[in-house]
Amino acid sequence: MTNLILLIPVALFLGGLGLLAFIWALRHNQFEDLDGAAVRILEDDEDELVDEKQ
Amino acid sequence: MAEVGARNEVWTREVAPGILHMDLVAPGIHCAGCVSRIEKGLAPLPAVTRARVNLSTKRIGIDWRRGETDADALIEAVRDLGFEARPYDSGQSGAAEREASGRRLLRSMAVAGFAAANIMLLSVSVWAGAEGATRDLFHWLSAMIALPTIAYAGRPFFDSAWTAIKARSLNMDVPISLAVLLAAAMSLAETMRGAEHAYFDAAVMLLFFLLVGRYLDHMMRARAQSAVTQLLALSATGATAIDADGTRRARPVSDIEPGMLVVVTAGERVPVDGDVIDGSSDLDRSMVTGEATPEAVSPGQTVHAGTLNLTGPLTIRVTAAGEDTFLAEIVRLMEGAEHSKGRYVRLADRAARLYAPSVHVLAAFTFLGWLAWTGGDWHLSLLIAISTLIITCPCALGLAVPAVQIVASGVLFRRGILVKDGAALEKLGQIDTVVFDKTGTLTMGEPRLTGPAVVDTSDLAVAAGLAQGSNHPLSKAMAAEAIAKGVIPAAVSDITEVAGCGLEGTLQGRRVRLGRPSWCDPLNESPDGMTLSLQLGDRVAVTFQFVDQLRPDVPKTIEELRRRGIRPEILSGDAAGAVETVADELAITRYRSAQTPQEKLIYIDRLAAEGRRVLMVGDGINDAPALAAGHASMAPAGASDIGRTAADLVFTGESLLPVVQGVDVARSSNRLVTQNFGLATTYNLIAIPIAVLGFVTPLVAAVAMSASSIIVTGNALRLRWIKLAEPSASQTINGERPATEPAKQVAA
Questions:
Q1: Domain containing residue A40
Q2: Which of B136, B173, B273, B437 is catalytic?
Q3: Which residues are CB-neighbours of B118 under 8 A, at least 6 positions away?
Q4: Does the complex come out with an ipTM higher than 0.95?
């Protein structure tokens, strides 16, 4: 019984953390552009862009 | 430019002090290269603080410092990078609302999923044999998770059920809401008593499954809508007005008033109804009347919005604006058509109208039966009656329709067919008659050279040399023929386009002409129509004949439709002869020609009155009322804006075969929906006796509900392997019909 009192809040807390992370991501538009995220990794770094300009 | 700049300023909003933000739609964005080209092209602009491309929605978000640049300059900057862009109107067709409701559903789903998993964890321990104080603790914990979850995640269902009850009708959400609320209330009462069974897991799991179904349904609509918005963005129109002082200025069509002067250059669409006061040209009226043959106009004649100006610049005095235009008349007809059609009741709601009363009556009888049997033990009777409601709750029914329709619309989406919503798919599966418009639907709306059978290569070279610079569809067909035959166009000099007549030039000191037979040879009595004469010096060398070419796969489409027991018909605004030729070629016996938009609408209504379920396939402005009136409707992507908006489905590509593919998928999807209803009914037939007899425990409810949902979803997935008639190989890779009009430039 005593271990339950410890473990259940832990389980709920961890699950809740996942839920909050998801809702945070949703609020911050992380799911707005799933296709874009996949292609952006192919882009060159910002630094190189500066070099090109010079 | 200042006044014009103000017009796009409405789409901006202040996101931080002194920082303005604007969203643009640019349908041309399609790859990583486009993303970096736009972002790296905009970022160096001194005023721009942030530029970000969204590849999924094909939108560009730009932030800039107020006063240092303006919305118009930024749109121009994006155009200079090679992307046609237009401000994104989030208010248009409720796009912002749809996005917000999608997010709300997703959040509800996440909360319900989290709660269902944790409650299930606790419930499994109870089922495994937790007793006494431990069981009570677990029930209380479950209650603490479940009750706020139900209050939050159940909102979409409660709201919809309440709306239905207020309107004195029943939908699927009424039994769902009732079951969830009763289950929660009963479980809470049982928990307070310290009893053995609580149904918190069932209530929350039910919500989670149903929210999945609801979100699938939403996703399907959002995907199609965003695709349609992009199509509309491609054809945004403005008008070039001449002010009192003679300066020309681009204005949005909504700013144009009767009496104003508007200039329409060759290749542009006429933006408003009006009278020609200067210039002469040929007009392609196929979008407005269905006539394939261009018509010559000169000062004094009336032109309608939506016609395409082909050969010369026209100055038009606006006669009608807003409510008085031809387009407004079409919109009125459409509204009337939608009104008279009545509201279509979706399959799920039709099932609910049978289902909800029967389970509620059943639960009531269960309660009364147990009350009589136990001699007044109302507590036990109520418990069993509520558990009957929980187990018969239409969990599988809630998934039965959206699961199938999202798979179906995905199958069609991959073939370039956009389905606007689930109801459209249901209706498409029920049709028994297809009514085709001719010009632009059965045909490409682009003529092709068909005669004479033998053409002298040197004549063709001269004709192509004259034709290659012109926008006229017959000239384009002439030039295309020369390219196809490998003939090098002759070097004709001093080419002038005589609007309404043809082209004139000089070749080796001789005057050469390509144009209307009556212009080249005044003695020629034959009708002008789809013919061009080539005149070399004083002699007419040859008269070319053209035919508006059928789309690829048209005969195959008609044959496949007939094989499915669907009757094809043609309803065209074009002249009798042209319609008859096409009808004969396709062996279609029921056809009508020279139809006005009103007549088309009346004919569709008459077919409906005869009990036929009509699929209208059309593209023009004149087809829009008929599209709205049809039981279901389809339009090609090249259709007029209003046609695309009115149609339930839009197909890309040249082939007409998407009509057959759409019908096949829709029929299969309706079949699967019916099967799923059958499966859900079977499940109920097994579950109801168990529940009525009082053997249902929370464990039985959880297993039964999950199993039926999984079976129904699995059945829906079978649609992925459907075999469809595929278009012939001539289809272009990206499925887009080549543009028939040059990209419009906004006049400065």
A1: 2-53
A2: B437
A3: A11, A12, A15, B145
A4: no
